[in-house]
Amino acid sequence: MMNVLQEQLEVKNFIGGVFHNESSEFLSVISPLDGKEIGKVPMSDGKILDKAVNAAKKAFVSWSAKTIKERVQVFFRYRSLLEAHIEELSDLVRLEGGKTYQEAKAEVEKAIELCEFAVSLPQIVQHEIQEVSRGVECRVEKKPLGVVASISPFNFPSMVPHWTIPNAIVLGNTMIVKPSEKVPLSLMRVAELLKEAGLPDGVFNVVNGGKEIVEEICDHPAIEAVSFVGSTTVAKIVYQRATNSLKRCLALGGAKNHLIVLPDADVEMTASNVVASMSGCAGQRCMAASVMVGVDQVDHIINKMVAVARDIIPGDGVGAVISEEAKKRIETYITNAEKNGAKILLDGRNTIVKGKEKGFYVGPTIIDYVTPDMEIAKEEIFGPVISIIRTNDLQEAIKVENTSNYGNAAAVFTQSGALAKEVMEQASAGMIGVNIGVPVPREPFPFGGWNESKFGVGDITGRSSIEFWTKNKKTTTKWHKQAQVNWMS
Ligand code: NAD
């Protein structure tokens, strides 16, 4: 078992059940917690991808021939292994992603929940059959696609890969997973644990790298489907490139989530929910609150938000952002907003954590009097920053939400069911919260946004993923008694 917390790690690809390292180019993996190098990640090329695809193709023959009830057995054991190793896995996520321990643990717990959905698939995926006319039956069976790929972002090194791994494999596919080059450590441990759980060699493969390997995945003729999660800019590139080479593709992109706050909202609950949504995981969640649209008089809630956020201690209550570059980018957004006339109520710039002076910390930041035309109101900031836009009524607030190019999540805080319903019906987002700051649908409900937050059909988790990872075989049978008699005589 590797001990990543005490020594530097050479990240390896995992191909055909074996760790390999044949790359000539490596990138440093830096821990956001203290800015130290914790490992090196290989930048793989097309030849390495070919090896992984060949291993996956070979494994597909016997893996797809098993019944779904046989395949889930591996994930019953794997789920137990995740639970048994939760502390070590959470430490790994914390180390490479810069999260607090509690946030990292919540992410691994979510990976466990995703496995629980996957092991229930035999109860859900049943073939359809009907006698459509006397003696004639139609049946539809869900068949695996073959070799599939999954590409993930930096902000959830464990959870996001688990959106795809258990379901795709249980449904009979074999897989190539490409983690973010910024956080490649967790998946090495996932590979080890899947092997320990009894997953046959070649069913699950990890190929590390960046842009080049993603392009190779999109172009590879033997990969049938590509699932992508990351920024909208790259989601568009991947969706266009993968579908251009005639693959099935689902590409989840970035977000700019609006929380609409009405004056009748419960003060304590709303303030703590909004602050937790914008500052949790240092704002690096595609479900993070980025804009609070205050309707009419909400100063009492804003004051409480500032008080709650001021008590959050960087390095303890809020983790680090992923890189030095990200810290600079976030701070520049705050500075530009101030220059353009917004008012900084709480300023997280220039945050330094004692003993971790080289870590990449930004404190919770609340910016008031932002207008919809400002860059900070439109672009994804991906840091613990919330912009407040003030509107006179709910329809104006909904209009502000609707102008966003994104559409991952939106939420409303109110005690009025009728007003909440207006937001539920009119917000242009795939996931809506009522008095909930991070409205992530829990299993078995599907996860996915609208507009430029997602390209492709369906959602990435839940029942929706069954359609993505399978193809329907339609069979029509006619057992005509007269025909049989003729043949037998
Ligand atoms: P990113 O788009 O920079 O990278 C995602 C993946 O694409 C990585 O594996 C990376 O190696 C690869 N990549 C980067 N540039 C590429 C290029 N030019 N061509 C091909 N591949 C490329 O995203 P990130 O910074 O790692 O993650 C943060 C983003 O992900 C945010 O925008 C966030 O909102 C989004 N995200 C969305 C969801 C969702 O459910 N919609 C979930 C998590 C994160």
UniProtKB/TrEMBL annotation:
InterPro entries xrefs: Ald_DH/histidinol_DH (IPR016161), Ald_DH_C (IPR016163), Ald_DH_N (IPR016162), Aldehyde_DH_dom (IPR015590), MeMal-semiAld_DH (IPR010061)
Pfam families tied to this protein: Aldedh
Example GO molecular function: oxidoreductase activity
Residue ranges annotated for the Aldehyde dehydrogenase domain, each copy included: 22-473
Alphabetically ordered keywords of this record: Oxidoreductase
Assigned EC number: 1.2.1.-
NCBIfam families cross-referenced by the UniProt entry: MMSDH
Protein name, per record: CoA-acylating methylmalonate-semialdehyde dehydrogenase
Organism: Aquimarina hainanensis
